[in-house]
Write a structure and sequence with these properties.
The protein has 221 residues and is an alpha/beta fold. Helices cover 38% and strands 16% of the residues. The model has no long low-confidence stretch (mean pLDDT 93).
Length: 221
């Protein structure tokens, strides 16, 4: 059973979520352009030093002006996401509850993602009105601090089976140290898509790596 999304954001090129990370080779704007060049339609702006609203606005513009418009998700900062016109905000387990983000958005459409490591986390996020889940980490990754226990394939199978039994169909994205070779097996667990940072950022050709991830995700559906 796959957890299909009712949102167009999570179809086609948007089954791949790219998460920005500081790099000496590519700044956040260039990372965004390269991922869009490779067909990516979903960019999460994450900066461990805090999100710069002016940068968020520039990335929103880059996404909007793409040949196939992409969506920008702001990590952690609800006020920034709303003030700069981002499509979404992603909230960690120690951030504001998803319900608060929904209330802050009011009538404006703002997708709210939530981080989860267990089935109980997902059940809570669903009760809070989250629109999608970032479930992980799959394995250890150096791009994220304060990791929860790694899940591996068996962890994803167990959690998604529990979701199925509970009738929970929220979109779930696998995240955490994922490589291209991991994608087919992860997609077979029933996840909606894949969230990636380092595997694309460290590639010799990030745009080509993005295309490879998108093609592999769709070939694994």
């Amino acid at each position: 059973m796959r957890y299909e999304s009712t949102y167009p954001e999570f179809r086609e090129g948007k089954r791949l979520m790219y998460i920005t990370h500081p790099s000496p080779d590519h700044d956040f704007e260039e990372q965004t352009r390269l991922v869009i060049q490779g067909g990516g339609g979903w960019i999460q702006l994450r900066d461990k030093n805090g999100v710069d609203p002016a940068l968020a606005r520039r990335l929103v513009r880059i996404c909007a002006e793409a040949p196939v418009p992409a969506d920008l998700c702001v990590d952690d900062d609800v006020a920034c996401a709303l003030s700069q016109g981002a499509a979404a905000v992603h909230l960690g387990k120690k951030d504001l509850p998803p319900l608060w983000a929904k209330l802050a958005a009011g009538p404006r459409r703002l997708l709210v993602g939530a981080t989860a490591n267990t089935f109980q986390d997902i059940r809570w996020a669903v009760a809070q009105g989250a629109d999608y889940i970032g479930l992980g980490p799959f394995r250890f990754t150096e791009t994220k601090r304060g990791l929860s226990p790694t899940l591996g394939l068996e962890g994803y199978r167990h959690i998604l089976d529990a979701c199925r039994r509970a009738g929970i169909r929220i979109p779930v994205f696998a995240i955490g140290g994922i490589t291209l070779e991991d994608v087919p097996a992860l997609m077979r667990t029933g996840v909606t898509g894949i969230a990636v940072s380092g595997a694309i950022l460290r590639a010799k050709n990030p745009a080509r790596a993005t295309r490879q991830f998108i093609e592999t995700i769709h070939n694994s559906l």
